[in-house]
User: What shape does this take?
Amino acid sequence: MQQTIDFVAESEALDAILDGLVGEGWDTVTQFKGWTINDVLVHLHFWNGMVDLALRDPGGFAREAGDITAAISASGFRATENARVTERGPALRDVWRARYLEIGAGWAGLDPKARVQWVGPDMSVRSAMTARQMETWAHGQEVFDILGQQRQEQDRIRNIVMLGVNTFGWSFQVHGRKVPPTLPQLHLTAPSGALWRFGEDAANTISGAAVEFAQVVAQTRNIADTGLAVAGPVATEWMAIAQCFAGGPETPPMPGQRHRQV
Assistant: This one.
């Protein structure tokens, strides 16, 4: 399953920039909600484990998900995740890496259309792996940014682009807005230079780098901080509220808030 290969590759890209991190460097605060680099890896490691539990032990997952939902309501995301993942620094990196490699080996041969439980509606195995890649890529962005690193993007970003396309309606729904009937036309240039086209509404268009489109729908950049060309009221509204992840409505970063440190 290509999505599993892409998830592992995305995790490896993040792992590779952690080599020089020592001591208090792990508590460096990123530009995302005050999360530290430790917080990022705790988050990724915890939810990687949850999706693997959902596959291996649906009953155990259902019980754990109920406990986690209650804990999050009482204490919040950070406290809940940090209480369940106790490793920090290099030890955290080691267990995170061991788990994503184990998932890569264990999920690669699964039927992509098989269903797996999740905290919200269940989803296909393919979608579960795409979601894990997206989370790794999106939260990895704040680590790349704060360390002043430029990620070498690959065409596996297409999985995240597709997630953005498929959540067009969701982006409006979660913000309590009427869903437009037609997806804007997208003309996106892949890292390889290939042109990816989606959508049918020629009155609303978005064109530019596929990576920047993915950054907007994953809310790692404000649309104003990209070179995307956006035309038409539907396309403009979408790019202002785009959200390719589950949960409640989230506000994109303010212009200039998220950027690579130099």
